[in-house]
């Protein structure tokens, strides 16, 4: 399946875009997405070591499954306030 | 007659928050002996460079959901009566208020402790980013 991952802040700046598109196998997890993103967006290599994913607006761990149509985001260092 | 407020309100607004010196009205609740308001204001410099404004990006609605989650946790853990949080998105000029947290509780200590905990968690978990707009 093909998924789009939203990017913000330093990660969006590093890639020069506010999202990246990644191809994943069916039954993929956030851990698989992390690995796949390293390949398609090498500029995110350092962030992908620690940044969190959000699936449908909630923080997810690497074992969280990804389904077709899920809204995905990579959340790096936030800086509200 | 006592006016009961919503115990938690979370708001993200475009641009600077309301005029300085006009924070939300204190809840009309005789059980509250403490009313603590913190305002985050855009500074004129960032790392020694002159700033004209900060441009905030919020991932919504996750940002509101995370603010609400933290609010519920600190309300419960510190036994607060009311918590109001407001945050800006978009451009906030120097001197503008971009964040306001208002807490009412029975006593001072729990309000101050909750304030600190809320802000620490917000800066870790709420998907809001700021980008300086440098002064030319």
Concise synopsis of the structure shown:
The complex is a heterodimer of chains A (81) and B (136). Chain A has 81 residues and is α+β, with helices and mostly antiparallel strands. Chain A contains two helices and five strands.
The largest chain-to-chain contact, stated as pair and per-chain residue counts, equals: A-B, 13 and 23 residues
The DSSP helix count of chain A reads 2
Structural class of chain A: alpha+beta
| CATH superfamily heading of chain B | Molybdopterin biosynthesis MoaE subunit
Describe the global form of chain B.
elongated
- CATH topology label of chain B: Aldehyde Oxidoreductase, domain 3
Number of strands of chain A: 5
Calculate the terminal CA-CA distance of chain B, rounded to whole Å. Answer: 54 Å
CATH architecture identity of chain A:
Roll
First CA to last CA of chain A: what distance?
A: 37 Å
Tell me what the CATH architecture of chain B is: Alpha-Beta Complex
Our count of domains of chain B comes out at: 1
CATH class of chain A, named Alpha Beta
Q: So how many helices of chain B?
A: 2
Count of DSSP E strands of chain B? Answer: 7
Given as residue ranges, the uncertain stretches of chain B (5+ residues, pLDDT < 50) are: none
What features would you highlight for this structure?
heterodimer, A: 81 residues, alpha+beta, Ubiquitin-like (UB roll), 22% helix, B: 136 residues, Aldehyde Oxidoreductase, domain 3, 7 strands, 40% strand, elongated
Task: Outline the structure in words.
With 81 residues, chain A is α+β, with helices and mostly antiparallel strands. Chain A has a single domain, classed as Ubiquitin-like (UB roll) (Roll), CATH 3.10.20.30. Chain A contains two helices and five strands. Chain A has a five-stranded mixed β-sheet, with helices on one face. Chain A starts with a strand and ends in a 6-residue tail after the last strand. The mean pLDDT of chain A is 97. Chain B is α+β, with helices and mostly antiparallel strands and 136 residues long. Chain B has a single domain, classed as Molybdopterin biosynthesis MoaE subunit (Aldehyde Oxidoreductase, domain 3, Alpha-Beta Complex), CATH 3.90.1170. In chain B, 26% of the residues lie in helices and 40% in strands. In chain B, strands 1, 2, 3, 4, 5, 6 and 7 form a seven-stranded mixed β-sheet that branches. In chain B, a hairpin with a 3-residue loop joins strand 5 (82-93) and strand 6 (97-105). The mean pLDDT of chain B is 92. Classes of the chains: A alpha+beta (81), B alpha+beta (136). Chains A and B meet through loops of A and strand 4, helix 1, helix 2 and strand 7 of B.
């Amino acid at each position: 399946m093909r998924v789009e991952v939203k990017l913000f802040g330093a990660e969006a700046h590093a890639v020069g875009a506010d999202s990246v598109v990644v191809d994943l196998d069916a039954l993929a997890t956030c851990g698989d997405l992390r690995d796949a993103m390293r390949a398609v967006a090498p500029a995110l290599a350092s962030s992908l070591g620690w940044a969190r994913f959000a699936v449908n607006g909630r923080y997810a761990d690497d074992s969280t499954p990804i389904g077709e149509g899920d809204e995905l985001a990579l959340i790096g260092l936030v800086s509200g306030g | 007659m006592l006016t009961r407020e919503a115990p938690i309100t979370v708001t993200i607004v475009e641009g600077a928050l309301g005029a300085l010196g006009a924070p939300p009205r204190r809840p009309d609740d005789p059980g509250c002996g403490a009313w603590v308001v913190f305002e985050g204001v855009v500074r004129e410099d960032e790392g020694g460079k002159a700033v004209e404004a900060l441009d905030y990006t919020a991932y919504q609605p996750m940002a509101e959901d995370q603010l609400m989650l933290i609010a519920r946790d600190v309300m419960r853990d510190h036994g607060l009566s009311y918590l109001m949080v407001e945050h800006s998105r978009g451009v906030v000029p120097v001197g503008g208020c971009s964040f306001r947290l208002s807490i009412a509780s029975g006593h001072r200590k729990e309000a101050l402790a909750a304030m600190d905990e809320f802000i620490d968690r917000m800066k870790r978990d709420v998907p809001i980013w700021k980008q300086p707009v440098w002064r030319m």
